[in-house]
Amino acid sequence: MKKILIGYIANTKGSGLDNYIYHLVDILKKEDVQIDLLSSAIDQELKDKYKNDTNIRVLPIDRIPHPKKRYEQIKKYAQENKYDVAYFNISESFNCIGNIACHPVVPVIISHSHSSGNDNANRVKREISKMVHYLCRPLLNRYSTYRYSCSDHAASWLYGKGKPYRLIRNTIDASRLAWNLQDRQMIRARHGANEDQKVIGFVGSLTYQKDPEVLLKLMMELNKESAENEYSLWIIGDGMLRDSLEQTVKENNIRGIKFLGKQADIEKYYSAMDLFILPSNFEGYPLVGVEAQANGLPCLFSNTITHDIAFSRYSQFFDTKNIEEGVRKVKELLKMGRIDPKDFDPGIVYNLKDQEQEFIDIFINGKFE
User: Fold this and answer.
1) Directed axis angle between helix 16-28 and helix 356-363, to 10°?
2) Among 3.90.600.10, 3.40.190.10, 3.40.50.2000, 3.30.530.20, what is the CATH number of 181-343?
3) pLDDT tens digits for range 230-258
4) 2-171+352-363 placed in CATH 1.10.443.10
């Protein structure tokens, strides 16, 4: 039996990284394997998720601000369980505590990069975190048997330029995310959007990384030259910036904006939208962008996101500091309508089923490179 340690479950209810790990576990749990998941945010819902899977355990660890405790906990787990593989999904190199704790007990330690920047909203703290990140890179590289990444950009950020790595794309269950007319009608009716209204959607955490203030600026400009109910912006997600965003909407009387919080049935909301926007300051390889395109939505991404995310001409990029450019491209993409499946680049793998064998080869058959 293979024994695998996987970190980390953030348990943020719908995060792309958590979903990636859940997909991986769903594939591996069918094999002769013991899987231990590390999380500092275990609640009853997470406990219940795997309560019927006898070969899966969720193990508690302390949060990053307590590095010594986290190190001791992971080291204890590694010594007690003698894992064959430790697999750490991280976004910044100072989170190499698990790698160090597993060395030299675990023979194979994999790091997987899932981002390309620091998400601290405070500029001073963000710069300090960057410095720590750069200082910890040598440690991360030293204690990684193999390096994986969701994109070239994310690899360069976590490991440094020129470091060899294996590209593992973030994937989705494309069949679940297919466009559905009934879902569209139901969700639009629920939120008061008729078929003539253009629904622009955003899905993600309301944090510095996602730069959601840009969405409000775009709506302000769109409203200046449109009929009263021509556009509606649905902001799906939650985070530390939500209160300030809602206050900005109220103070500036920006019409047409709905804060919908987190939604479990996100595929239904994609079907209800007419355009998807992701104005992030940085990303690794954003899963929501893959999901939106699989649903058939035209997409507008900030030009700081890896251009590998664009599957077709229905996906474009803009400078988030140039709101006029953003408004122009919003209108262009809305006129294009939904993506015809024939317009997808067949060379881009975005379906989870296409990647099942790759995961089995890595974690069960030991084909790490």
Assistant:
1) 70
2) 3.40.50.2000
3) 999 999 999 899 999 999 999 999 999 99
4) no
